[in-house]
């Protein structure tokens, strides 16, 4: 049984309403959490989340909470620019923190958060829940152990017309969000890339921010393990939403957010194989593998992230994504923004393209 009895959900926007509320309600019903506190300055957002969390205590601002939160868990689901300051405030008050992605807008803020957690002796986790997909863990294992040979090349294409039911316009402000598609949805992609493949050596980065936030970006990478590849993200047109990995002897094709399946094949063959990941429970009387419990689907993986945090606080298992781990994705994104070049947009005149180049340096 986890030691945390009080969970404070700070920020009642879309991610809280769609994902966190149902998970927290389940924990309460199972007797694994006694108190849920909700914090948001919008009554409409509070009311929406309260429909799934009846009985939760409600506050307009984090500073209004007068009861001790030492040993509790604060889930920080606020806009990006508040991730560092509110997380640090919670850690200093003795709470553990699960911060939504991205961990912060800058590496400097990440370091302040990590320092606050170490000083307080509290856990700091970040919400990169794609790590809990069974597929993600298996692909990482195949890369690490070179099941298809050494990784040579990768191509990650992820994008759609923006449809997230955002509660505010914070995603479209550089000052508030820190950037556009790369630091928002792209931080999930970057986190998986670094978790699977390792550190980056050299890079080139292009986007269409033009002094604002980018809707499209392209990132070319040379990894320290020798693999090369690129990442393309978009907010305004649909991409295949697939990750392709080329190895010495074969390949993997993964569809984004599929928790339990991927395609793969051997080089030179015209037959692809689709792997559905299933659990096994030892051997039966006939010495054949027996079916085990079903592996988690998408929504269950989000729940497992919270359970992992609670178990880590109880010292029952390590954090899947600590602050130190999440810092790596923020560092790479910050490097991209620092070295950004303008995407070539052929419909612009030469003078407009030159102006775009100047804006890219801002």
CATH topology of the largest domain: Dihydrodipicolinate Reductase, domain 2
Question: What gross morphology would you assign?
Answer: globular
End-to-end CA span: 50 Å
The whole-angstrom Rg is 22 Å
Helix percent band: 25-40%
Low-confidence stretches: none
Annotated CATH architecture of the largest domain: 2-Layer Sandwich
**If helices are DSSP runs of H or I spanning 4 or more residues, what is the number of helices?**
10
- The strand count comes to 17
- Say which CATH homologous superfamily of the largest domain is assigned: Dihydrodipicolinate Reductase, domain 2
Assembly type of the chains comes to single chain
What structural class do the secondary elements suggest?
alpha/beta
Which band does the percent of strand residues land in?
15-25%
The chain-level mean pLDDT equals: 91
Describe the structure.
The protein is of the alpha/beta class. It has 2 domains: 6-126, Rossmann fold, CATH 3.40.50.720; 131-297 and 329-342, Dihydrodipicolinate Reductase, domain 2, CATH 3.30.360.10. Helix 7 (186-197) crosses helix 9 (323-338). The protein has a 9-stranded mixed beta sheet with strand order 14-13-12-11-7-10-9-8-17. It has a 6-stranded parallel beta sheet with strand order 3-2-1-4-5-6, with helices on both faces. The chain has a two-stranded antiparallel ribbon with strand order 15-16. It has helices at 14-29, 43-50, 83-92, 107-120, 134-144, 174-177, 186-197, 298-313, 323-338, 350-360, and strands spanning 6-10, 35-39, 57-59, 73-76, 96-99, 124-126, 151-159, 200-207, 216-223, 228-234, 242-247, 250-255, 261-266, 273-276, 280-283, 289-291, 340-342. The chain is built from 10 helices and 17 strands. The model has no long low-confidence stretch (mean pLDDT 91).
């Amino acid at each position: 049984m986890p030691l945390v009895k009080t969970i404070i959900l700070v920020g009642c926007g879309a991610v809280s309403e769609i994902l966190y509320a149902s998970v927290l309600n389940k924990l309460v019903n199972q007797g694994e959490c006694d108190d849920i506190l909700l914090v948001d300055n919008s009554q409409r957002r509070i009311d929406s989340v309260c429909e799934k969390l009846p009985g939760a205590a409600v506050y307009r601002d984090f500073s209004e909470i007068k009861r001790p939160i030492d040993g509790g868990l604060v889930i920080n689901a606020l806009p990006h620019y508040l991730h560092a300051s509110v997380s640090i405030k919670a850690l200093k008050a003795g709470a553990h923190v699960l911060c939504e992605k991205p961990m912060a807008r800058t590496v400097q803020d990440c370091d302040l958060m990590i320092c606050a957690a170490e000083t307080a002796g509290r856990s700091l986790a970040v919400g990169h829940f794609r790590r809990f997909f069974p597929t993600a863990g298996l692909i990482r294992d195949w890369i690490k152990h070179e099941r298809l040979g050494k990784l040579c090349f990768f191509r990650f294409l992820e994008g759609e017309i923006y449809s997230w039911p955002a509660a505010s316009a914070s995603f479209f402000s550089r000052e508030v969000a820190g950037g556009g598609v790369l630091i928002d949805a792209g931080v999930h992609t970057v986190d998986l890339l670094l978790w699977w493949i390792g550190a980056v050596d050299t890079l080139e980065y292009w986007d269409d921010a033009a002094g604002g936030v980018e809707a499209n970006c392209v990132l070319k990478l040379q990894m320290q393990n020798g693999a090369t590849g690129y990442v393309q993200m978009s907010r305004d047109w649909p991409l295949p939403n697939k990750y392709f990995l080329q190895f010495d002897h074969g390949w993997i094709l993964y569809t984004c957010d599929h928790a339990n399946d991927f395609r793969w094949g051997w080089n030179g063959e015209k037959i692809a194989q689709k792997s559905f990941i299933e659990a096994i429970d030892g051997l039966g009387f006939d010495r054949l593998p027996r079916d085990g419990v079903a592996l988690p689907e998408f929504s269950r993986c989000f729940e497992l992230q919270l359970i992992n945090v609670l178990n880590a606080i109880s010292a029952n298992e390590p954090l899947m994504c600590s602050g130190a781990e999440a810092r790596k994705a923020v560092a790479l994104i910050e490097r991209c923004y620092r070295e950004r070049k303008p995407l070539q947009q052929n419909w612009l005149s030469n003078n407009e393209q030159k102006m775009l180049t100047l804006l890219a340096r801002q």
